[in-house]
Amino acid sequence: MRPEDLIQDETFIAWFRKSDPEHEKQWTAWIQNNPEFRQTVNEAVFLLKALDLKDVAPSYQDTLKARNRLMNSVNKWENDQKNLIPIYRKRSIWWAAASIIFLLATAVLWMKNPFGPQRYITEAGESKVFRLPDGSEVTLNGNSELKLANSWNEATTREVWLEGEGYFSVRHTRTDSRFIVHTNDVNIEVLGTEFNVKQRSEKTTVVLKSGKVQLSKQADPSARPLMMKPGELVEYSADSRQLTRKEVNATQYTAWKEGKLVFEDASIREVAGILQQDYGFDIVIDGNVSTANEFNGVFSTNSIDVLLTALSRAYDLDIQRNDTKITIRNKPE
After folding, report:
1. 39-48, 49-58, 234-243: least confident range
2. Which of 58, 99, 124, 319 has its C-alpha lying 20 to 30 A from 190's C-alpha?
């Protein structure tokens, strides 16, 4: 399966645009059950975003009709030329035309691509501090990527796109230029502040440490933005399409910057989710394992085995680790 196949699939486009709940549910489940295609899906999403021309974009049916008209024209031209042009020359002309079409399509993609050449990436289990061109700093957690806009200077809006988790320390500029973090579902706009953003598994979580930020939904940009205060957590779920807010201890959500994992009343699946998303482990959990939210503790990110031992003792579990695969099940009675 290739990204080109996905962007021609009507149901995948419906999932991307969140226009059909049934297709959304279908594709969300498929992506979760087929992690080996995650990169392919990400590339397809990137292509769809690059080609999304908003109100003037052709519909999927219009695209199919245009493609069919093009292919019919090519076939007719080939039939008309059978007795006039040697086959090798005919193919050369056809491929020349196809190459021109491809180059034009590539040019459109390039012009519509909002990202600049600067990208910051971390591997599984790695956290790293990056200094942005304006002097702001971002610390990326494992398995994360930050992309900068093509235009980046103090006189214009500073825009970045985040996949994964990042802690931002945004520098205030003399011109009060805006700083916007985009995730798949939410836009976070700030002037000068410190906050944590995590975008994983159809959820975006924002924790504000200091300053002010406002959040707006990608799916409903005309809605009134939600203003956050320090010590608040706001979560957006792609399933409910709602923003929920609560007060939290911000330190718990930013401890990973200091090489720590902090858990307060966490469930086994929440712990497993962090190990899988941030550290690249393949987690298998037996269906009979407890779902209680009662796991607490502070652990070093360099001592995953200590965490697994504590988890095993807290819930009386049999936890086996084989390289990057972790299996969690109840101990036999």
Report:
1. 49-58
2. 124
